[in-house]
# Entry
Amino acid sequence: MKTTRLAFIGAGNMARSLIGGLIADGWDPASISVSDPDSRQLATLTSHFQVHTNTDNNKVVEASEVVVLAVKPQIIQEVAEDLGSTVQKQSPLVISIAAGIRSSDLQRWLGGNCALVRCMPNTPALVQSGATALYPSEQVSSEQKDQAETILRAVGLALWVEDEALMDAVTALSGSGPAYFFLVIEALQETGAALGLNEKTARLLALQTAFGAAKMALESSEDAAVLRRRVTSPGGTTEKALAVLEAGGIKTLFNDALTAARDRSRELALQLGEK
# Structure
């Protein structure tokens, strides 16, 4: 059983999913502390996971080796600055899952020279199927990298990027990505119903098809393009449908969409860092 003392600042959905994944992965609930101003959120966590809770952020950080900042980007500056002196005294590994907040800004708010890992998880982490990119500061040791990866792998895939600037591309691809797939599922479901299927049947077929395609791609060593060609019979129905999608410029649309999301991520990082 893992007993590294771990503090979560914030008790929202992502914190709850991480805590649930960690405990399922063998983390001792008694070594996990959570702080949040909402006592109802804390009560829910205690009833589900038997973790320690407190409304004082500094109290839980004082007793921890790893701190996960799981608060909204709009309030993280206030939270980080309040924790600065305690973080400087305790020197924990700090993991931030606040979207769009740059390491340089977090370092400034926390007092500098912190062992800091910036992460970009996505919402499927709520069902232990997330995809998270991580970027370490130069102060992070190999052991601390392993700790951070272990924590994020409790809710899905976790991988490192070599340049923090790539986190904006990660945000565009996997951070925002679930919404793109939900839109495709929505379109398939609605069109299936328009073609005569009842709504329940159209929904279930769209969902299972999306799940099955993703599972095939994950379990195959082949590229998605190879898998696509394999299920596309010459002169068949799939080829006809794909021709319509390609004529409509689907790849160009996705390129433009992800580029716009990346650019917006950069803009938001600058805005939040200037506060």
